[in-house]
Structure prediction request, 132 residues.
Amino acid sequence: MEYLLPEGWSPPIGYSNGVAVDPGRLVFIAGQVGWDAEQRFHSSELVPQFEQALRNVLAVLAAAGGRPEHLCRVTAYCTDKPAYLAGRRELGRIWRALVGRHYPAMSMVFVSALLDEPGKVELEATAVVPAR
Prediction:
């Protein structure tokens, strides 16, 4: 995996501008919200929902034989910008605890609502699991 940083650009913080990977098994992970395996939310707060949603992404990736470092792209949809901004430090801690210092290409999109209530955040991802 190669992290792409155009010449003269300042390095991004907490994400990569682009990622290039060698051929492998493409894994597309549908939007995961902050509920458990039985589709129950245990919190209506953004930070715990983010942690659970990220755990869900990683569980789907593991089912495909992948590991966190195989994530190439993550798109986050969030309904609460003030809560996101207030929780950035804790969200970063959660990311590092579950994924490490691997930062794929990422986008954050703020939306008015998610389908599943009381969802505050949804994560979708693309990964490339190296050929065996």
